[in-house]
Design brief:
The chain has 18 helices and 11 strands. A 7-stranded mixed sheet has the order 7-6-5-8-9-11-10, with helices on both faces. It has a 4-stranded mixed sheet with strand order 2-1-3-4. It is α/β, with parallel strands linked by helices and 419 residues long. Helix 11 links the parallel strand 6 and strand 7. The protein is elongated, with a radius of gyration of 22 Å.
């Protein structure tokens, strides 16, 4: 085995059980023999050198290319060993530290998300085959963190609970004008239009999502209450009584936070309410993982609260409630990856084996980041006026309970996204 790689792994892996078969067929053992137990093979010396030089990118690329093979165990075991040891020992090695510093220095350059670039970035991910997403998401095509009120919830139940949880925080009333920024395949907007008889406008930059959303409006005969447009949020005019944004803020980019919240301030009615649901970091500003930036979400960035709150304050807006969802996304991703791999053969037919391995690493790596690193979900409630909402949070629980009671008979027959 490459000596640099061997030294790096020896310093990193103190707990767990890792066996690596190198390019010459020799096996090397690392860790203390405790679970998880993992046995992998590295197929070439070039791959060994690449991993030694830049493991953050080279490991997922080697897995994608079939140069890193898992003989015993699971990809999640590999990530658990790496992340738990990094957290426990706090020593990533000088090469990883140097790479992180370089990425941090240039992170704003990676996030220059102009309108044209934002549209291009969205197409890279969200305009993939619609069948791909139907193979691993719930039937409402919710592609964001679910809300597990109980550990035994199905994915469908937890995604419905997420919509209910968010809607309750918006303090909605019939007839209100609601804007959904980054409306996905329409599920959140349609839920609000259906449950509250509100007038909903959803906006997205994905042609695939836009087409599906419009089909769903017609299928549910909600044309008088919901519409979806292919437009950048920066081009909109208000006012709106309520604004919701779920899983879109991760694509805004650090350079554009002031623009985002200044626009929210312009769009939100004087007594309006916004609910922002986004992935976040627990431990302060950082950088986007190079594999995610290159292959999955170009232009994306996961913020710390310390980066979001100043932009909200400078826009003249008020933060009225913050909730941190910790392990909910880990459970969501577990469900997604199980469904993804259950349909692996079909996904390889749609794309190819390399694409399937790339997405397997993306889903496993994302789950690992919520289980063993510092990823969480933020739900931030925002207003323009301090008296826009009741004095206590009781209205949230009361609305949520009322919605749950109305939905109880509908959970098993929730409208399916248009095929």
């Amino acid at each position: 085995m490459n000596r640099v790689l061997s030294k790096f792994i020896s310093r990193l892996v103190k707990s767990g059980s890792l066996i690596i078969r190198d390019a010459d067929g020799a096996e090397h053992r690392f860790g203390d023999g405790s679970p998880p137990h993992l046995h992998v093979a590295i197929k070439s010396r070039q791959t060994e050198r690449s991993i030694a030089l830049y493991p953050q990118l080279a490991v997922p690329e080697a897995y994608m290319d079939g140069e890193l093979e898992i003989i015993e165990g699971d990809l999640l075991d590999l990530l658990q060993i790496a992340y738990e040891n990094m957290t426990a020992h706090g020593d990533n090695g000088w090469r990883m530290q140097l790479a992180e510093r370089m990425n941090f220095a240039f992170r704003r350059l990676y996030q220059l998300n102009t309108r044209a670039r934002s549209r291009s970035n969205v197409r890279r991910h969200y305009d993939l085959s619609g069948e791909l997403y139907r193979l691993f998401l719930d039937k409402d095509l919710q592609y964001s963190c679910a809300y597990f009120e109980r550990p035994d919830m199905t994915l469908e139940e937890a995604q419905l609970a997420k919509k209910r949880h968010i809607a309750a925080k918006l303090s909605l009333e019939p007839g209100q004008k609601v804007l959904d920024i980054g409306s996905g395949w329409g599920g959140m907007g349609l839920y609000i239009a259906r449950q509250f008889e509100a007038n909903v406008l959803g906006v997205t930059l994905s042609e695939e999502q836009h087409a599906v959303s419009r089909q769903r409006v017609k299928a549910e005969k909600l044309e008088d209450r919901a519409r979806f447009e292919l437009v950048d949020y920066r081009a909109l005019t208000g006012p709106f009584d309520r604004i919701v944004s779920v899983g879109m803020f991760e694509h805004v980019g650090l350079n554009h936070y002031r623009t985002f919240f200044n626009q929210v301030a312009r769009l939100l009615a004087d007594d309006g309410v916004m609910l922002l649901h986004t992935i976040g970091r627990m431990h302060g500003p950082s950088v986007t993982n190079p594999f995610i930036r290159k292959y999955i979400f170009p232009g994306g960035y996961i913020p710390a609260l310390s980066e979001v709150l100043p932009a909200i304050e400078k826009a003249g807006l008020i933060v009225t409630d913050v909730e941190i969802l910790r392990l909910h996304y880990a459970e969501t991703l577990r469900h997604w990856r199980e469904r993804f791999n259950a349909n692996r053969e079909r996904i390889e037919e749609i794309y190819d084996k390399r694409f399937a391995r790339m997405w397997d690493f993306y889903l496993a790596g994302s789950e690992a980041s919520f289980r063993w690193q510092d990823m969480v979900n933020f739900q931030i409630q925002i207003t323009r006026r301090r008296d826009a909402l009741p004095l206590t949070r009781n209205y949230m629980m009361e609305t949520e309970a009322a919605l749950a009671e109305r939905e109880q008979a509908l959970v098993s027959s929730f409208p399916r996204a248009v095929e």
